[in-house]
Design goal:
Blueprint: E1 6-13, E2 17-25, E3 35-43, H1 55-80, E4 86-90, H2 99-120, E5 125-127, H3 129-136, E6 141-143, H4 155-163, E7 167-169, H5 179-190, H6 207-226, E8 233-239, E9 243-249, E10 257-262
Helix pairs in contact: 1-2, 3-6, 5-6
Length: 263
Amino acid sequence: MTQDFKIYLGLDISTTTIGIAVIKHVDGNPNTECEIVLLEGLVLKSKELNKIKGIESLFLKNKMFREKLLHIKAIIYQTYQKEIDKVIIEEPLYGSNNILTVGILMKFNGIISNTVYEETGLVPEYISSYDSRSFAFPQLLEVHVFNKKNERRDIKEVRKALKNNNLVLFGGYPFQIDKKTVIHELISEKFPNIEWLYNKKGDLDKSSFDSTDALACLLGYINKTQHNETKPIIVDVVDTGKEIKYTTAFTDNDEKFIHKITF
């Protein structure tokens, strides 16, 4: 018996590129079983935009997005004879020191959200960047090992964090790690058949990072929903004095992630 499926649209919005991901998914299934329908970064550039500055440019960029959204809707209907079922948008980051940048991004996010509502009839749902990444890839939640100087934290601090179940996103990586690159690598590992875009120099096109963030927000939303917003916990610790191995999982019955710290 064929299970009913739904079409999810994920958006990662910035004023230069909008990451777009569309997946086919059966509710209740793990996100690893979803099928990618579309994955791209909509670069918001045109000759017309070169002449326009300020808030007005946001409306022209929204026009480009609207045209893309209508095209996506047509593809979905032609292929599956159905409409988009759910739209998930990654919330803008509020932690920037540039208040003007945050304000513009929030305005644009609202404009795009309104266009989604007008063209699909759906009220978008939102997920933070933190939840997007931590639920999409729960193995990234680890005990904080490095400080801001990329020096290993004192073993006593690490053991205290383990005891208190203090897991943080990218905790096992050096402090200056390029987080977008890590997410892209994990997406590539999960979906090895994706054909990425490269520029003339042979480097990965920057728009690919926006599209992977859009896909991550869908994967994160699915996991967050299935686990009722409950994040992984430490379920086992083996400390030899020179090496610590610990295991994280949503519950004892879920997939487990093994982490290792050496001193």
